[in-house]
Design goal:
By secondary structure, the protein is α/β, with parallel strands linked by helices. The chain contains 14 helices and 19 strands. Helix 5 links the parallel strand 5 and strand 6. Helix 7 runs parallel beside helix 9.
């Protein structure tokens, strides 16, 4: 039996693709390993969202080539730079695009170099493949759609994955049921834009209806929704999130900026976001809101940035990520005038993060003395349990370190009394 290793880079959506690749290999009799030292053939699923992600993927490829491995490159980087990859790293055995990974078994059988990259990608989820999950534990991701119909000025994803394609509700529910039977407690719904789910196949947004169906699954603990889009944040969806007991009261809605001039330059919905944020908080009592902003986008002035700082101070987001603009070839912003220097962009990043840190410190202190449901993720070296509240998504938000003598296992949802806090994390006891 041929053994194949896989290295996965990038976002949760890319992780799902990696698990689909592994499932396809397993169905065709290949033995799977995540340790590249155990085999001479390695698949690298790459990321190309920003320059740093590209560098990480390239570094991984070069290290494997130096070890003499047969390296097959797939994912966003190979979709974006197929010719350049082979030219710069001639040892690569194959380059596969974002929508061509279902051909990987045939490609593995070839001895010659293969470049299988569709120049006009359209990502249709391969429902016939059984995912081979890499991360089995408390949580797992479900991709409800891929591709994107928006053309945000900074984003290369639509050009790498094509237009938006939703999966059918029954297929998503079936996948969630299988995960729960395997012991998954929390499912996390991902797409380039989850709030646009269903428009292409049902002719209207259907995320609320999808949540209704998922909420019926026995033994499922939590349902989390990531990557909401401002224009689709309607009252029906908010009321559904508030009402359904398994849907965590957490809204992830990357806003990218606050100033209407900047939003227009970014090709984003250019309206005042304050009433929307207030409406979310009104309709979902106790909600935690995560957002993300880009600083240093071409044309961003001090006035624009100060507007963003005031917005963050006023809105007091529960969780916030900040990114410095990354100039990506092929995006609408690539040739825009008014570039912001790296030094200024980094200074703006630092200032915005300092503003958010003050907000986060106060918010976390407010939890001390309260008892919150927390999902157990793992155990640290000192024997403490590591958990998350419903306001924390895995890997990007905070954790709760718990001291307990109680027998608990990953995936359990326990009531935890919060006893302490730092800028981003909590401590507690059961």
């Amino acid at each position: 039996m041929k053994k194949i290793a896989l290295v996965s880079h990038g976002c949760a959506k890319n992780l799902v693709d990696s698990e689909l690749i592994l499932g396809l290999l397993a169905e065709n009799g290949y033995e799977i390993t995540l340790n590249e030292d155990e085999t001479d053939t390695v698949i690298v699923n790459t990321c190309s969202f920003i320059c740093d992600a590209e560098r990480e993927s390239i570094r991984s490829i070069l290290e494997l080539v130096d070890k003499g491995k047969k390296v097959i490159v797939t994912g966003c980087l190979s979709q974006k730079h197929p010719e350049e990859l082979k030219k710069e790293i001639p040892e690569i055995a194959a380059v596969i695009g974002t929508t061509d990974f279902t051909k990987i078994v045939d490609i593995l059988k070839q001895d010659k170099y293969i470049c299988e990259v569709n120049k006009n990608p359209e990502y249709i989820y391969p429902e016939n493949i059984e995912r081979q999950q890499i991360t089995m534990g408390a949580s797992s991701y479900i991709k409800i759609a891929d591709g994107c119909n928006y053309r945000c000025g900074y984003c290369v994803i639509p050009y790498l994955r094509g237009n938006y394609h939703s999966r059918k509700i029954e297929n998503i529910v079936q996948e969630a049921e299988k995960m729960v039977k395997r012991g998954v407690t929390e499912i996390i719904l991902v797409a380039q834009d989850t709030t646009g789910y269903g428009i292409d196949i049902y002719k209207k947004p259907m995320l609320a209806q999808l949540l209704e169906e998922l909420n019926k699954i026995d033994d499922l603990g939590w349902i989390r929704v990531m990557y909401a889009y401002p224009a689709q944040m309607n009252d029906e969806l908010l009321d559904t999130i508030a009402r359904l007991d398994k849907v965590v009261k957490y809204v992830d809605i990357p806003l990218q900026h606050s100033h209407p001039e900047m939003l227009k330059m970014m090709n984003r919905p250019a309206f005042d976001y304050r009433p929307m944020i207030e409406n979310i908080r009104k309709r979902i009592p106790g909600v935690g809101i995560r957002t993300a902003f880009i600083v240093g986008y071409p044309g961003e002035t001090e006035e624009h940035f100060n507007h963003l700082c005031r917005f963050v101070k006023d809105m007091k987001f529960d969780r916030l990520g900040v990114f410095t603009y990354s100039r990506e070839k092929g995006t609408p912003s690539y040739n825009m005038q008014g570039r912001v220097s790296s030094k200024i962009a980094k200074a703006r990043y630092k200032k915005l993060m300092e503003i958010q840190q003050e907000i986060s410190v106060k918010r976390n202190k407010s939890f001390i003395g309260k008892t919150l449901p927390c999902i157990i993720e793992c155990f640290s070296d000192n024997g403490e349990a590591v958990a998350r509240t419903q306001y924390d998504a895995p890997e990007i938000d905070g954790v709760v370190s718990i001291k307990t003598d109680k027998h608990i296992v990953p995936g359990d949802i326990e009531m935890v009394k919060i006893t302490g806090s730092t800028e981003y994390d909590l401590t507690g006891e059961i």
